[in-house]
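Hi F.,

I've been meaning to write this up properly since the lab meeting, where we talked about keeping a consistent format for the predictions we share between groups. The idea is simple: the sequence comes first, exactly as it goes in, then the C-alpha cells exactly as they come out, then a line or two of notes. No screenshots and no reformatting. I'm using this chain as the first example so we have something concrete to point to.
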Amino acid sequence: MIGFIAIFAAALCGYAGVGLWAPAASAVALASLSFAENGGLYRRGKELGLTEITTSTLLLSFGHAMAASGGAYVVGAIFRLN
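Output, unedited:
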C-alpha cells in the first residue's frame, strides 16, 4: 500500500507542476521499501558470495522505481495539460 501511495504522490506532483525532484524522491521511497522488504535476502546473498547478483538486483530495483515514479509524474503532467 505504501508503494502505491508513493506512485500516486509522484502523479499528483506531476499534476501540480512540482519540480523534477519529486519523481526522484518517490523513487527513493520505492527503492527503500523494496530494500526493507528484501533486506534479509540481500544480506544473505552477500554472505554466500553473490555480491554481483545482489548489487545488480539493487540497481535494477532502483531503476524500476525510477521508471514507475517517472511514468506517474509524466502522466500527471499530461493530465495537467488537458
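Notes:
The two ends are 29 Å apart (CA to CA).
The CA atoms of residues 6 and 47 lie 31 Å apart.

If this format works for you, I'll send the rest the same way.

G.
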